[in-house]
Amino acid sequence: MAGTYPNLGEHVVVQDIERADAAVIKGLAECGVATVHEAQGRFGLLSEKMRPIYSGARIAGSAVTVSIPPCDNWMIHVAVEQCKPGDILVVAPTSPSNAGYFGDLLATSLKGRGVAGLIIDGGVRDIRDLTEMQFPVWASSIFAQGTVKETLGSVNVPVVCAGGPVNPGDVIVADDDGVCVVPLADAVSVLEKAHAREAKEAQTRARLTSGELGLDIYNMRERLKEKGLKYI
Amino acid sequence: MAGTYPNLGEHVVVQDIERADAAVIKGLAECGVATVHEAQGRFGLLSEKMRPIYSGARIAGSAVTVSIPPCDNWMIHVAVEQCKPGDILVVAPTSPSNAGYFGDLLATSLKGRGVAGLIIDGGVRDIRDLTEMQFPVWASSIFAQGTVKETLGSVNVPVVCAGGPVNPGDVIVADDDGVCVVPLADAVSVLEKAHAREAKEAQTRARLTSGELGLDIYNMRERLKEKGLKYI
Amino acid sequence: MAGTYPNLGEHVVVQDIERADAAVIKGLAECGVATVHEAQGRFGLLSEKMRPIYSGARIAGSAVTVSIPPCDNWMIHVAVEQCKPGDILVVAPTSPSNAGYFGDLLATSLKGRGVAGLIIDGGVRDIRDLTEMQFPVWASSIFAQGTVKETLGSVNVPVVCAGGPVNPGDVIVADDDGVCVVPLADAVSVLEKAHAREAKEAQTRARLTSGELGLDIYNMRERLKEKGLKYI
Amino acid sequence: MAGTYPNLGEHVVVQDIERADAAVIKGLAECGVATVHEAQGRFGLLSEKMRPIYSGARIAGSAVTVSIPPCDNWMIHVAVEQCKPGDILVVAPTSPSNAGYFGDLLATSLKGRGVAGLIIDGGVRDIRDLTEMQFPVWASSIFAQGTVKETLGSVNVPVVCAGGPVNPGDVIVADDDGVCVVPLADAVSVLEKAHAREAKEAQTRARLTSGELGLDIYNMRERLKEKGLKYI
Amino acid sequence: MAGTYPNLGEHVVVQDIERADAAVIKGLAECGVATVHEAQGRFGLLSEKMRPIYSGARIAGSAVTVSIPPCDNWMIHVAVEQCKPGDILVVAPTSPSNAGYFGDLLATSLKGRGVAGLIIDGGVRDIRDLTEMQFPVWASSIFAQGTVKETLGSVNVPVVCAGGPVNPGDVIVADDDGVCVVPLADAVSVLEKAHAREAKEAQTRARLTSGELGLDIYNMRERLKEKGLKYI
Amino acid sequence: MAGTYPNLGEHVVVQDIERADAAVIKGLAECGVATVHEAQGRFGLLSEKMRPIYSGARIAGSAVTVSIPPCDNWMIHVAVEQCKPGDILVVAPTSPSNAGYFGDLLATSLKGRGVAGLIIDGGVRDIRDLTEMQFPVWASSIFAQGTVKETLGSVNVPVVCAGGPVNPGDVIVADDDGVCVVPLADAVSVLEKAHAREAKEAQTRARLTSGELGLDIYNMRERLKEKGLKYI
Predict the structure, then answer these.
(1) pLDDT single digits (tens) C80-124
(2) Which single residue of A120, B175, E141, F100 could bond A91 by disulfide (Cβ 3.0 to 4.6 Å)?
(3) Which ipTM was obtained for this model?
(4) E160 inside 8 A of chain D by CB
(5) Which of E1, E2, E126 sits opposite D34 (nearest CB)?
(6) Does residue E214 contact residue F105 with C-beta atoms inside 8 Å?
(7) Contacting residues for E206 by C-beta, under 8 A, at least 6 apart
């Protein structure tokens, strides 16, 4: 079942997923969302509606995905058991909803298992508790409205979360800029490209700090003239 | 007039409203929005567009309600006089508007009277001053655009604010999760239910912290199986 | 070309713009957005969608304007060279877009030139870096999605940014309440009016603090009665 | 139970509600939303997000209200039985949701009972079928996403629908301008006021058609001059 | 006063504005929004939130501009007198508001004077009547909520309407695609460019109809290959 | 390359895609979006922001997918060549944008090749022409703003369009309710399930028409009682 989107009424929990190397994940976290997103060819950025509940967190981890019916958080309880230390839970309702699927009790449970954070295209509550316990969440909504536990979904199947495709085991990178998804198979090469990008940016930053202009560093003047820009 | 929505062109100020017991109000504040909302059967939550202007505040108080024409803040000045220490002003424009109805001068006046905070389905300004003086506001908008003082409204009549019905004297609970309205008549029983809920959650939290799974604590495995969830 | 909106395919960089007096600019910054906006007759406020990336900054400066194609940040690089110490860059895409036009490298370059901040009706990224270096930005979006460098725009021409007309050299005032534009020719008189307003508000604040009601300070009771307000 | 909002977990169906006189309802339908809304002092207009699924319908009827959990349409089936000819079903989810609660089968059932139309602060589907059968719906969303039938709500209790308070038996007026709620107790007097307004508007319309200006008909010139308007 | 934005509390009615030639206006109407917008270098398009209240209308006319306080339609009555046959009224509230500023009585008055239509960054009501009398309106909202007549604005001053700068006498072009503003001084040259564009598009359309591909007509294949597009 | 999302800077055109059987596609079109979506387990519905530019069209066809940079429509020209009679073009910008990527010239070209319609998570223009030529489009925006032709994308690779995953060759079903995606491999079985659903609904419709209640047809009374619903 892994590898295809859930449909036709089947509800599954895939228990054994592949994860990226811990060092690679750590490296991607340090690079941050903007760099990683550029490094992988501007692919995998979730919608800008995904905002952190508090600022300053920067994490990466392996996606444990949850396809969940709208206004029903039952499957999140199921997903907790599938999480390993360092994982990030990715929750995607099958229909848009701002209900508060997640609060401090679930966070306590996830934190106890070493889960690094939560990405949810829906609502979250108990913001004050989550901030105090420093459990980072990127959500499309803050809303206290509760959910029910009536309908099944699936765990560790491909999902679309906030406009981005996520497969179980993909590396999630999240910080104040938002959330980016790195496909598992690309994690190593993306990290390399991100490091190369960082090295190059460090050089550029030094030159900009010394007063050089981007116009000159990037050799833009000629092309601007060709395109017809007039200085007056 | 109290007890019915204002209409047909009558504009009134109801000067004598009933309030909940101060200890009950204090208890509800300590429980917070998410718990109180669950405790009263998921009733009374205002729209998620109501956000605090700074994080960390958690208050409760008796609602002094203001039905106000759009882009006109005259009646807020009228309402100030009706406020008693610990009250919360609840301002509901009769037509949606993001105008900046409220700023630091009105806050100075309210704070001087011991008012606990403001709930407004509209705009607020002087954010920096309000934050410095620690006068908490939950608003649907931050906008410096001023308002006029031309048209009457009513004070202490039933209003709908951000989607929720509010009667004068209802207990307002507000924190980082949003705003919840507890009907005056239900305040005592809701507090009891909220305390019961907190006690139960404390137990659950302890079990979750010790590593138990919600799946087991809530006895979910059987029902999941019956519904057809497959582990693979 | 200065003085007219860019159109008909001409792309220009106006290199020599007039700026307001530094002391006037400083004075407007101290008054803040809400006061300045009221002082100039409620003109020039940008849309409430313009939010600061971190709270607490309050700046003013001369506008260096950039008319930019959607999803293309080439002209920002061109504009950097036109900025002088104390200026504020005002970036207006010609079509709405939330792309991340601006990040830490451009901020490094602008900060090195003494630029006070950025106003952009579009997206910004590298929020954590910008916050650490305390380079204030008011933007309509936070989004890591990159842009291209393919199409020309213009620098220092009149633009409409977030609903407000901005001419090069206009004074931009920005704080937690949003962004306000003071036309260059009005800067001195607006500052005078703002100071007068502040003086009057200080008196009012003192009276409110001492417990007087706005109803009495503003002599509202008579007019409320005439309009038909009933106390019950 | 009727007369209070549903909460604390009680779920009821109130079977016997009072309705306005059929002639009054018919009269209000003929006046239309804008006139009725003005006639009752600009009270009772639902949010502008409530749009008709096809244009041209103008109806009025007695509200049969449904308080419904988000993403769950079970209680609509319960409500059908409570509807009488000429009624209008008013569906208010307790939490915002755009799910498709209603389609052609429910419309068939309602139409068979003589129900005049549906007002729903949520989604509707089978638009083509509903249009063909000319069953008018005002909804906040068009969305094919289905709902579940798991959780109770209440029928014929007070609800807030799209920002407006609705009591069972209130008269709903709906046309291309939106939806307006007339409290049952006010229906007769509002109709009188609406008729008076229509008569006056007919006179004004005749004068405007003959070329007179509103400036003169409404005697505005003097007051404009007093306020300081300058013609140049 | 004409030529500057209204501010500092002055309120004026400019009675004598320049208008474009009737034949030029008619020509621009026939070209339509998309063509005119391209022909003038992609300048002057209003926000996409401006939608026609019924489809199929395509008009052009000289702008009579109205700067209006939020939720107050007094100045529209003043503006009617300034309109000449063929004009288009352009109404821009100084603060965003969806109130229903305009209905069938004002339309009757404008239609009687030969006004071609209305552009309003706000709400409109009496949709059914306006459709029946075929008075076209492009508005950001349909909402029955009424407005007051208390505060002055200005007529025939520069405004920003729905994100676009409009000067009195500018040519407004509006159809199902939206609304475009042609600066008065550019009207003749834009019409020429629009006609040239139409001629060229007619040729392209003929070739496309005959089965030729845009890839070949526009000679794209070479450049695509250079950029690295791979066919597999 | 087919089968993975485009990233890492590779841009490809996959020329040979598998398509569903024409009879199956025709059958799915006749069932319509709501039925098909239910039949495949409520999977594959695109966001409700996808609205038809005119009402009444109901189509199905094989997806030719286009991954396109924001505000750049170059790849649509490339995609035209890959379309076969009966196909539906599915255009997904890699970053959200409301630009007008598509107008009557591209429609002329597509219609000439027998393409059934367009699905685009972006803007479309020339609405009047498209309506006249009856070329159906489901778009998230109507906007005349043009795009550039500077940056590559890919054709016939997996995309996420308006929140839904689409693979080349998937069957797209679109009508007034929105847009649904049927995975190619499931098309036959989904059609069967849709037909079964239609047969069952026909029976239910007959019973409802005869006056039976859903409460009885679906045997709901018992379960409602068990859950605690009280009739009063």
Answers:
(1) 999 999 999 999 998 888 999 999 999 999 999 999 999 999 999
(2) A120
(3) 0.93
(4) no
(5) E126
(6) yes
(7) none
